[in-house]
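input
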Amino acid sequence: MKKQNVRTLSLIVATITYLLIGAAIFDSIESQEEKRQKEALNAMERQVLAKYNITQHDFGLLEEVVLLYKPYKAGMPWKFAGSFYYATTVLTTIGYGHSTPKTMWGKLFTMLYASFGIPLGLVMFNSIGERLNRFSSLIIDRIRRSVNARQEETTEVDLILVVMFLSVIIWTTGATVFSYYERWEFFDALYYCFATLTTIGFGDLVALQQDNALQSQPEYVTFALFFIVFGLAVIAAVLNLMLLKFMTMNTDDENRDEIE
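output
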């Protein structure tokens, strides 16, 4: 069997195994807490129903109102600043779910906008990542020559270490700023930054959703957008290096198979 086929099959098996292990660990960690929270919420619901003498139907309406009102704590989510933030999460595929279109035309435009915007964003971030790697390579080459290093040329390992270090700087800096403005615990801010830069975007923690931030804190809005764009560009640089390494390995195997 060709080495490329063996590698592909191995990756499929490894990914499925990884998913199974992850599911088992999450089940073990979160199940009991989920049960405890559900019991606590049910108890709280019974207390509210008894205290204010409202029906289950009225309580359901109250729940719906609270959920629908939540996006408006940020200000006006569909004014230009909020719309720009929403467009950014669409183009970057983060998709927090903090604000979603309610009209048919809004949903239709979101699909069309994403269809063209997501490929554009991927190409842009990949291009920025390549330029960042090239710039890092030039800097490392000069440093190696200035210290008379044995190997003057930059290696892929050098680039990966530099970009990973830059990623950590962006991650921790973002967490520091978000924890200050959002009044989050620092660990929660780290978790939010990780979910954002990996474009997971769970939506359990979302910046710019309190104290009318979209309209009253333009400097914070600017930082949040810059963090997303620049941070994703750095992540793209890492992925670009990893993809280049994988493609090189795959090409070498193909050449070897042709010779054999």
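quick obs: The mean pLDDT is 86.
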